[in-house]
């Protein structure tokens, strides 16, 4: 049977051009014939380029060629593609009334696709693609490529199309919407470690650099992704973009707009174009004429091409501008002069009014301070707001700024080189966070320019597409859940529907773990200056062992990824490797390298033989990263991507081979270590303080671990003998040996609550700030004997089981070991406010959900009486066994205030206490900000008083909309230091 593609354009992203009852069929190729693409040679070059790309896509699927022609032939079926006013065939269809372009004419980058019967003499049927401008036409043609099953990543991620004998489309007439964002694109940055080396040594050796050949493939990708702008690579490893004359010509051929970063004014690459020997010092207060000379030269050579001129000025590369007077007023005045001079140059060299020339001002780092200090910026210049380099936009347009004719935009990072630490290797920016920040920017009218710093392009493929899809049509991304829907659709397109949801779940869990701590931050080191690896904040002896739990979670991701790889069709395995396999395995193994290293060091201090095993696992994780990176570069697609992937950008300590700790081979003996204690049980000391497990609480149904481990060289056997039938252990006997992986056994102890004797039944059961100090009448005590080599070590077990009447039918949060832990989305009740209400964002935060007050346009409410009356309210019911002073810790996503004058605040109270305002805002690059972005969490605490044991309610009111609450911890003195708050203490 003949295989066939029959594809319907679904109108979720498009508006109807005119109603049609029936779908129109159009065959592109079959066993007997193929169509051609009819264009006008007078149309823009990008129309021809897009047509050739589509023709090649058809060939990749069908092995049949279709021609791109400029004159009619005797074919009965053709594709006619062209721009209004630039294509005589399109214009003839318009004048004859065969197509109606009233919605398109004069619009920015729009297109229509429809089937027209008898369009021109001698043609029976035509598939017509008409664009409002040159890019609109190109996007329309490449939409046909999507429709026949060609991924935008066909070349850049080797998403090989499915082979078909026949390609036929079922089409409704549609017209695209106006793009949500006018200029949409990427910034190639920090290219030293991948893209530049790959281009120079592999793809474009004749240039030895990122040159015209490389840029042509990048521009093709941008067109396929419906982007139109690029900030070219600008590090010193790469020659300046304009040093290759063909670069600007290729850009124009592909209709790509050239812009430059915050440190590259007027399309000039200061980092590589400024020559100190011949040009002097790069400072405007003493050397302005030379600097203006560079600006004039660049404007002259670019004036006939589409470009966005970055105005203002910073220092060389990524440094502040040098001025004679070190005060803000002087810096502001000088920057205003720079902008005035730049606009005069634009006017003189282009013979146009500057308000007709696209310009951008990027208040990045210290420049934001100058802008906030009163810098006067011409209204027609686009304000391009920036994130803080870690995904959190520092400021957006207020109501007055939203009225500026030049509008606003955003420069956003998913790759960064700088303090507190780089993340240049993998894409570790949570897509839902990016959606949240960009949808916020869109809501605040930042719709003129969106630029994504995507580093080397790879492995940022998915986030690039998501970013550009949002910029193309933000209407498809109204909710946080839209990101998951987008990921499922993306995975189905690339790998098939049968695995799309599994792949999406895998990626979302990988994103969640990276949100808790990016892989590149796992050494607890910093940069500027570079420091050695530090001590982890993850605890190994509280709350189930955070290190071990993270190891196991990542191991599950590894196993899931490997299993999925086996399900992927052969023609998509290379794509799966690049888009899913390598990023997930890389993140998993970098984590496991450090996590096992932490365990190696911790257990070696206790003399455990298992330290050697943990060291082996750390080395194996490092070797796996090396193996996969070598495969990516050398073997994948026969070396197509050689040099693109570097496993150690900048050779920072986090990427190095781990240092190991070893133990001495003494005579074999057994050791025990319990959850809750940093050191082992010392069974030679009577009444050792480390010989009792934390108290088991019937209301939270805990389990705790006991580590049995070998000390010295040899073999030993052990038995665990519970002294009560209500004590349950995961294993009761076994052996330890020096064989790899057998030197340690972690046992889990839990309680059969149906068999535990009931403790004293009273309303109050004070536990004390140390949960070990429960009065004897409230708990039941027993023990476990661990027997080995003729020695018995007794571990105490205490079960808190008073069966309080108040808690018999209670469902809510309950104190455990002196604290109550809550995931913020699990409120007991919520009340809407006068202008706002609480809503949940899915796919972000430590638990994958956060709660926030929306809409973001709601006014801040600061007066506490008004807060209590008008603000949306969250209530969390909890039961406390202790009373007295409590430390209420709130963990929020570390976003910044919308405007310079607003905050990131909420108000907190327990019961009927006076609310206390909490502000999560940080300023500049403070130590608090650094810690916040390293763990994607801002934690603030307030003191509250719990007057008596029993039921209580924590209340949280909105002060500023947009605050995203993640976790809550009410600490009555029992919480022990840990990286994350303990799991929820919830009684069902």
Automatic annotation (TrEMBL):
Gene3D superfamilies per record: 1.20.58.2150, 2.60.120.1620, Chitobiase/beta-hexosaminidase domain 2-like, Glycosyl hydrolase family 115
Keywords assigned: Hydrolase
UniProt-listed Pfam families: GH115_C, Glyco_hydro_115
Keyword Nucleotide-binding assigned: no
Source taxon at top rank: Bacteria
Entry annotated with the keyword Amino-acid biosynthesis: no
Domain (Gylcosyl hydrolase 115 C-terminal): residue spans on this chain: 812-984
InterPro entries: GH115 (IPR031924), GH115_C (IPR041437), GH115_sf (IPR042301), Hex-like_dom2 (IPR029018)
GO molecular function: hydrolase activity
The protein's name: Glycosyl hydrolase 115 family protein
Organism: Flavivirga jejuensis
Lineage of the organism: Bacteria, Pseudomonadati, Bacteroidota, Flavobacteriia, Flavobacteriales
